[in-house]
Amino acid sequence: MSDGILQFWEAIRPFHRLWKSVNIRSILLESPDHWMNIATVITLGHAEINQLIPQYFLPHTRNLLAIEENKKMDEFKGVLDDIKRGEIHLGSKNVKLADVRKRNGKEEVIPYSPRFLGRSYPWMEGLSSFPRVLWLNGEASDSIQDMIGHDKLEDISDELRSLERPWDGIDELAKHYLGLDLNLRDRAVLRVMAPVPMRFGKKGILSKGNLRFSIEMADVVEMKEINVSTISYPETGFIDRRMVDIGEPTVNRMGSMNVVEIVGALENASYAKLFLSYSGTFVDSLELYSPAVEAEDPRFRSYEVFDKELGILQKQLLGEGSAQSEDFEKGVATLLHLLGLSVIRLTGPIEREIDILAAIPEEHAILAAECTLGNVKHKSGTVSTRANKVADAVSGYHVIPSVWTTLSGTEIPRTESEAAAKDKVALITSERIKELFENVKTGRIPENMSKYFSSLVPSSIF
User: For the whole prediction, is pTM greater than 0.70?
Assistant: First the structure.
C-alpha cells in the first residue's frame, strides 16, 4: 500500500468491526478506451446492505454516468488495493482513478497518491454529526475542466439540463448526489470516508457531585469496548483524573441510534471534561460545568443584569405582572430563552392561536406555545391546527404544540385533558412552569428539551 493508504488502514483498525458495508458513488466520464473518474466518494457504513447490484442514478448520457454500488466490508481491502493501482471496479466497468497520459504513442497511467488526512474532513451529507471521521483524499493533476475540455463540458451540461429530471451541470449533480461542493476548476477527486458511529449526547449534568451524560451509538458498537475517562476540577483545586464506572446504563432508542444514559459521581467537581474511547482509541469529548459555573451562560448573565434575583420573571410566570396576560407571555418567552431555545414571540396581527415559537435546532424540533392565564377550553384544537401548518412549512422538524397555563394540573378539566391527548398537545401547568423556573436558577436544564415537552402531552387513558 502507499503511505497514505497504509496510514488510513492503520487508523481505522481499532474500529474495523463497526463497519459492515462499503458504499461507492461515482460520477464517471466515458473516454474511447475506459471510464475516467470525475468524483468518487466511498463511505463505510455500520448497517448491513443487501442490495449489491450497481444502481444508475441518471439515464446513461452519451458521455456521463452516475453510478452507485455497495460492497461487503470484507471486500474493502481489495478496494484499497485497486485504488493503489489507480483503478476501481464498479459492476462491469473498470474506472481509472489516475492521470492518463499519452507518451510516444503509449498510454501511461499515473495513479492518484491519496493522503490520509486524519479527522479533519469537509462537510458531507449525513457525516457532519459524527465527531470522528477518518478520511483519505486523492486528486488528479488536471482540473475537471481541462480533463474534459471546454466544448465537451458544455455539451454534457446541456445534456444534463435537457433530462426529464434536469441537473444544472456536473457541479450541481456532485453536490446533491455525492455531497461535494465541486468546482469544475477543481481536480477530479476521490474521497474515502470512515465515520465512527458514536458520540456523546449534546447535553449532560454535573451538579452536587452527581454526573449524568449520554452516549449515542449504532447497534454495532459493543459496550464492553467503551471507556469514559474524566479530568475534573474539584472546589479544593486539586485536579482529579479517573475512569467513569459505566455500571448498568439505561438504553433508549433515538432514530437509528441507541442512547445510553450513564449516571456517575464526581465529588465536589465544579468542572469536568469527559473523554470517550473505543477499543482504547479516543473518539469524542464533552465539557460539563456545575450549576454555579453554568450560571456564567451569557443568556442567564445578561438577563440577570435587569432582573437580579429573577423576581420579575417569577411574578410574570405566576400571572402576577402589571399587565397580566401580556406579562405571562413575556415570562414564558424569557423562560424558554433561558432554557436555551431560540425564541420568537408573535404579537399584533400575526398572533393567532400561537403566541410563541421556540426552536431547538440540535433536536430538529420547534415548540409552538399558546399562553393563557386560566381557561384552557378549546385551546388544544386551535393550537394543534396552527402547529400542523408550521410543520408543513418546516420539513424535517418535529413541531410540538403546547398550551401554557397558570392553572395547576388538578384544575384542568378532564374533558380538556382528553382533548389535549387526542390532539397531542402538551399541557404546561403551573407545577411544570415552577419546575422549569427552578431548573433555570440551578442550571439543571433537561438534557432533551423536545422529549421533555413531548412527555407533557396527557395520557390518552383516564
Answer: no
